[in-house]
């Protein structure tokens, strides 16, 4: 974990200087306070959960590229959606960017012959009237697998040569450190209360004649063992081994009687466990709020998943996506963005779409001018890619404003002639209102001729 790793780096810098130390896993319990380590892991778990939610959501998004307002799938599209570097894919790359953005409040990306790489450490020289400079840029120093070969660039980089992503001025990690400082004492108290209530308690009764017993054996040096020797050994060694063992039997000297206080041991309730659970829940909630993530998603208690997902996209993911998108367009496209050459992060891929629930909406989109292929992309389906699937259709219910004004003029009795009545399928030909008397008259003449 990153915080745990930084902790050991801190110890090494403070106590060992430039030297190195090999710490074995079996030595950790002797070097680290277990209660503090538990607190650290709780903090790390909550932060990792939140970052993973944002990183996984962003990695599911497509980065679309446009040239002159026309979407193209070229080298830039392949770089950001498939292979930014030959050592990792686009998902790993975006996740590392998000991790650095949240942990450090900034992220530096360098372009090399192999593609784009995320800097693990660097020196940032900030200027007011000139470009910022980055020196001693180190990459590939925190790999989680294999033999790590970090590389330090010998040259420096100016701001216009790199991609430098920055969030707002408030560092999320510093907020987390502040919150954890306030919870530290409370968490220690809850853990201590739980351990005391869960431990075994008993009463050791010593007969008054036990001290008078002379035969306690001999020490390793051959001298006789006294009552004080036996008592010290029992309290410091034997009881300790007995309590730490899962199953154990401890022999007692004559005159010693140990009884477990079962009533006190069984008095423990779930309140102590609830104290720790409530503390963990509260810490997770605070972390979620700092990351702009709905706490229910991190706690796994979400009910209205659709609405919570929309809140996550709006407040937790879109700001980070805007930072990445703006910096990419600024550095890689420049003023060409004004002419329609740009890239955008499509966030519609985050939320799962049920095609049956989206059927009515897709129907409305189709009648509003969207093509079938565009609708298939929005619902997570591949394009058909034919001429007819790319056609843009529009319903007759829609019209522009000028056509509506012309239609109103005709309907209000303008110079245009009135429209004729359309023929009714299966009926007689259309006729005017004055034809009805003539039709009746014609029938009377026919009746007269028959008579």
Task: Report on this structure.
There is one protein chain. About 45% of the residues lie in helices and about 15% in strands. By secondary structure, it is α+β, with helices and mostly antiparallel strands. Among the domains are: about 200-260, no CATH class; about 355-410, no CATH class. Strands 3, 4, 5, 6, 7 and 8 form a 6-stranded antiparallel beta sheet that branches. A hairpin with a 2-residue loop joins β3 (about 105-110) and β4. α3 packs across α5 and α6 packs antiparallel against α9. The longest helix has 28 residues, at about 305-330. Mean pLDDT is about 75; it is low at about 1-10, about 10-20, about 265-270 and about 420-445.
Short description:
The chain is of the alpha+beta class and 451 residues long. 47% of the residues lie in helices and 13% in strands.
Most strands sheet: 6 strands, antiparallel
Order of secondary-structure elements: HHHEEHHEEEEEEHEHEHHHHEHHHH
* DSSP strand tally: 11
Oligomer: single chain
Number of helices: 15
Percent range for helical residues?
A: 40-55%
SS strand fraction: 5-15%
Supply the helix-strand structural class. Answer: alpha+beta
Uncertain regions: pLDDT < 50 for 5+ in a row? Answer: 1-8, 10-21, 263-268, 419-444
Our measurement of the CA-to-CA distance between the termini, rounded to an integer number of angstroms, reads: 111 Å
Mean pLDDT: 75
The rough form would be described as elongated
CA gyration radius, whole angstroms: 39 Å
